[in-house]
Amino acid sequence: MLSAKLNRAFFARSVHAVAPDLIGATLLFDGAGGRIVEVEAYHHTDPAAHSFRGRTERNAVMFGAPGYAYVYRSYGIHWCLNFVCEPEGSASAVLIRAIEPIAGLGRMRRRRATADARLLCSGPGRLCQALGVSVIHNGLALDRKPFELLARSEEPQIAVGMRIGITKAAELPWRYGLAGSRFLSKPFR
DNA sequence: TATGAGATCAACT
DNA sequence: GTTGATCTCATAC
User: Fold this and answer.
1) How far does the CA of A187 sit from the C1' of C9, in Å?
2) 3-class DSSP state for residue A141?
3) Spatial distance from the CA of A145 to the C1' of B1 (Å)
4) Per-residue confidence (pLDDT) for residue A90, from 0 to 100
5) Which nucleotide across the nucleic acid strands is nearest to A96, CA versus C1'?
6) What would the pLDDT profile of A31-70 be if each residue is shown by its tens digit?
7) Which residue is nearest to nucleotide C4 (CA to C1')?
8) Which residues put CB within 7 Å of chain C, the nucleic strand?
9) A122-136 as b/e, with b when 16 or more CB fall inside 10 Å?
């Protein structure tokens, strides 16, 4: 049986429920992508979240309906892809940090200019470059093209740890990954 | 293997 | 003017 599409109701739950449930799900963007192996949860009460200090032009999508993509520029260079969660207006999101490349490898290699599958999508910036995601996709619905999200068919073993690359609330264990995957941006310990 | 600089921009102080 | 949900490349060990 084919995997079910992830619908709006899937995302209309707490980020802490959605984030681990995304591990093992399939993310395709314009047909390219693979299995999600690493995500981080950002709750609006969390000092590390962009929405913590209220709505701005950049984070406006986070304050909208769940099931939409929030894309922002990181360090002036990279793009990062988030899925908006929880009931509308709660301004929480899941950062997609790494996927295991499965589909559209040729296109992803070309965009990333590397042949090493391990370096294609292991990190939020790399992932967006490989899939061709940028700010023009900010605010798009996740249940319509070019996005395609498929539920996992088996229950994966999920690793939990501290989030990466942040200074505020760094101790919160809100990073989730597929245990033992080679495609994590960093191993869990 | 590990550390450090540079790239480059929007939000915030 | 400083900082950040990052990555790459160079240099050092």
Assistant:
1) 22
2) strand
3) 42
4) 87
5) C5
6) 999 999 999 999 999 999 999 998 988 999 999 999 999 9
7) A75
8) A 40, 42, 48-51, 62, 70, 73-78, 80, 82, 93, 95, 112, 114, 119, 123-127, 163-168, 185
9) bbbbbbbbbbbbeee
Q: How far is the CA of A76 from the C1' of B10 (A)?
A: 8
Nucleotide nearest to A167 (CA to C1'): C4
Three-state DSSP state, A161: strand
pLDDT in tens, A122-176: 999 999 999 999 999 999 999 999 999 999 999 999 999 999 999 899 889 999 9
Helices A124-131 and A105-112 cross at an angle (nearest 10°) of 120
The gap between A31 CA and B3 C1' (Å) is: 38
Evaluate whether A172 touches A163 at the Cβ level (below 8 Å).
yes
Amino acid at site A57: E
Give A64-109 as a DSSP string. Answer: S-SSBEEEEEETTTEEEEEEEESSTTS-EEEEEEEEEEEE-HHHHH
One-letter amino acid for residue A97 of the chain: R
Which residue has tokens 């999101």? A93
The number of residues in chain A equals 189
Is the pTM here over 0.70, yes or no? yes
